[in-house]
Amino acid sequence: MKKQEDNRMPAGMMAHAVALAEEQAEGFGESCRRYRRWAAVRRCVGVVVLLVAAVLTMGSVMAAVANGPMAKGAWATDVAVENVNQMLEKI
Predict the structure, then answer these.
(1) What's the average model confidence in pLDDT over 63-82?
(2) Using a CB cutoff of 8 Å and minimum separation of 24, what contacts does 35-40 make?
(3) Which pLDDT score is estimated for 10?
(4) How far is it, in rounded angstroms, from Cα 49 to Cα 82?
């Protein structure tokens, strides 16, 4: 088994690689912070949109149920006749 030190680059090559990496990575810290900030904003906006959609959907469902004939106490005639017939059959 080889030691880890045997696989290392010479010091000059390592210094050159580090210098190139630092040169290419300039400004990445700021762009990463900017990306994380916008990602958090997008997540919050997405959650708000989903909550608004859920509230509007529930509101429309509740309005549909509240405006139905059974909610107002006025059933359609055929439904009332069917219910009376079912009650009479049980007797």
Answers:
(1) 73
(2) none
(3) 80
(4) 44
Please answer whether residues 76 and 69 qualify as being in contact, where contact means their C-beta atoms are separated by less than 8 angstroms.
Answer: yes
Instruction: Please state, as a whole number, how many other Cβ atoms lie within 10 Å of the Cβ of residue 69.
Output: 11
The token pair at 88 is 């009479």
- pTM, two decimals, is 0.48
The 3-class SS string of the chain reads CCCHHHHCCCHHHHHHHHHHHHHHCCCHHHHHHHHHHHHHHHHHHHHHHHHHHHHHHHHHHHHHHHCCHHHHCCCCHHHHHHHHHHHHHHC
Higher local confidence (pLDDT), 91 or 84:
84
In single-letter form, the type of residue at position 50 comes to L
* Paired tokens of 5: 């030190």
d(CA 70, CA 14): 81
* Dihedral over Cα of 35, 39, 41, 45: its sign: positive
Which tokens is 34 given? 């900017």
